[in-house]
Amino acid sequence: MSEKSNKNSLLEWVVVIAVAFVLSMVIKSFILSSTLVVGSSMNDTLKTRDRLFVNRISFMVDDVDYGDIVEFKSPVEDKDYIKRVIGLPGDTVEIKDDKVLLNGKELKESYTNSDRTLAITDQTKWEVEEGKVFVLGDNRLPNGSKDSRDFGTIDKDSIVGIAFFRFYPFNQIGTL
Questions:
Q1: Contact, 92 vs 104, CB < 8 A?
Q2: What are phi and psi of 10, to 5 degrees?
Q3: pTM score
Q4: Displacement of CA 130 from its chain's centroid (Å)
Q5: Distance of CA 89 to CAs 4, 8, 64, 134, Å?
Q6: Domains, the chain, with CATH or none
Q7: For the segment 34-90, what is each residue's pLDDT rounded down to a tens digit?
Q8: Contact 165, 53 (CB under 8 A)
Q9: So which residues are the catalytic ones?
Q10: pLDDT, tens digit, 9 for 90 and up, residues 107-119
Q11: Burial class (CB in 10 A: 0-12, 13-18, 19+), 99
């Protein structure tokens, strides 16, 4: 092989690696990312050390919906939280007699780890304004989750993405 073809071959490899790196950064930043669950706020649905894929683009197109598990920037800490969407703009969410009421009707929640949802503060009723959502952790036991019962509704703009697939632990791989 000539020195010129070696240089061309090396240059081709550098270009391929650079393009792959840029593509991976674009995908991770704007389309798909992975996240690690830390804490028990989503027990029994998610557990500490679960690894999830988060769709970072679908909520921009289709918006979030009831029951979606979203990753968002916490309004009280410098980290991301993972919670379930319970209320959308225009909804009224209330905690009454240890039950979640959505627009005056008891919400049937098969995913929670308790049949009771306790009010955490004196506030027990929230109006979900335009551009906001109401989120709860699936762990409804006392001190089980920091969620909208603590800090109120969250801005839709703070949502990073929608978690849709667990890829670790391997014995629980699947859609959420």
A1: yes
A2: -65, -45
A3: 0.85
A4: 20
A5: 63, 57, 11, 9
A6: 34-175 (2.10.109.10)
A7: 999 999 999 999 999 999 999 988 656 568 999 999 999 999 999 999 999 999 999
A8: yes
A9: 41, 83
A10: 999 999 888 999 8
A11: middle
User: What is the distance of C-alpha 159 from the center of its chain?
Assistant: 7
Residue 86 — φ and ψ, nearest 5°?
Answer: -110, -40
Other Cβ atoms within 10 Å of 17 Cβ, number: 10
DSSP code per residue over the chain: --HHHHHHHHHHHHHHHHHHHHHHHHIIIIIEEEEE--SSTTTTTS-TT-EEEEESSHHHHT---TT-EEEEE-SSSSSEEEEEEEE-TT-EEEEETTEEEETTEE---TT-SSS-----SS--EEE--TTEEEEE-S--STT---SHHHH--EEGGGEEEEEEEEEESGGG-EE-
Q: How far from 73 is each of 87, 143, 175, CA to CA, in Å?
A: 18, 20, 23
Give the tens place of pLDDT for each residue, 139-154: 998 889 999 999 999 9
Amino acid at 104: G
Q: Which two tokens stand for residue 58?
A: 């679908």
